[in-house]
């Protein structure tokens, strides 16, 4: 069966006064019907720009989708007209944005913001749309839903606003839900509730989910497969269990070493990834992670590694066979470290 969504060699660039920022540079992945794909990486690696590209919401100028294909149910979204995209957004593909306070309109009631898409896409009457909005708010755990419909966003807490965003995203029973950091700035109790809600709705409605996050703990418990991004590229991908048990790209290994684990001995110090992500303007043709990599060698400065198979359904972009058990060298090549 063909994937529900297939992204092929997607390139999204931003033209600035300093040069061209290649925020997404040759990204490819797929999402099957009913599964959850996790996209992980540090801030600035291209996760959110990838999701906005799928929705065709890149601000132009300065942004531009420079190439590639985004095949949704066999149709290339990059070739669709703006009217066709308006029929797809919120209807067949929905998105939960990072910050619900800035994503919700502060001068419209919550009820109006939910019923608008119901009236537009499902052609419901105002009464039918309002009744459906009450059902949606009940579904996502908003108490006294019929009364809260007439409230404004500022009258809700951060967790409640995020639930409203989920209700809006699920209002038309989309085939694909993109959740861009849905638990950012929420306390851990609300985070767990939001993630449990997304997982339950996925199981009940059969919706495919792209979960974008920097939290590997969330990825471990929520996803079927993982795509790791760095410097606008995919650097590792595979089944979630395989990525956590046998990471093969030093960046992924660094991410896993920098989080606490219950199965580690007490007193073990976390190992952070040194340095900062690279400037994406005029990035040289080397491995983008090499200046921060403990395993970097001369070959890493000669060319950027391509994704290669390192196991069944598991690919990694590294010139060498590195595993999480490979000892970290005491000293790296001076040229690479510089």
Describe this structure in words.
By secondary structure, this protein is an alpha/beta fold. The protein has a domain at 104-171. Helix content is 31%, strand content 23%. It is built from twelve helices and twelve strands. Helix 4 crosses helix 5, helix 5 crosses helix 7 (158-170) and helix 7 packs parallel to helix 8 (188-205). It is globular.
The outline comes out as globular
What proportion of the residues is helical, as a percent range?
Answer: 25-40%
Query: What is the oligomeric state here?
Result: single chain
Radius of gyration: 21 Å
Mind summarizing the main beta sheet? 8 strands, mixed
Mean pLDDT metric: 88
Q: What distance separates the N and C termini?
A: 48 Å
* Tally of contiguous helical segments: 12
- What is the number of beta strands? 12
Class computed from helices, strands and strand pairing? alpha/beta
Helix/strand order, N-terminal first: EEEHEEHEHHHHHEHEHEEHHEEH
Widest sheet, order of strands: 6-7-8-3-9-10-12-11
Beta fraction of the residues?
15-25%
Uncertain residue ranges? 333-338
Quick structural overview:
This protein has 338 residues and is α/β, with parallel strands linked by helices.
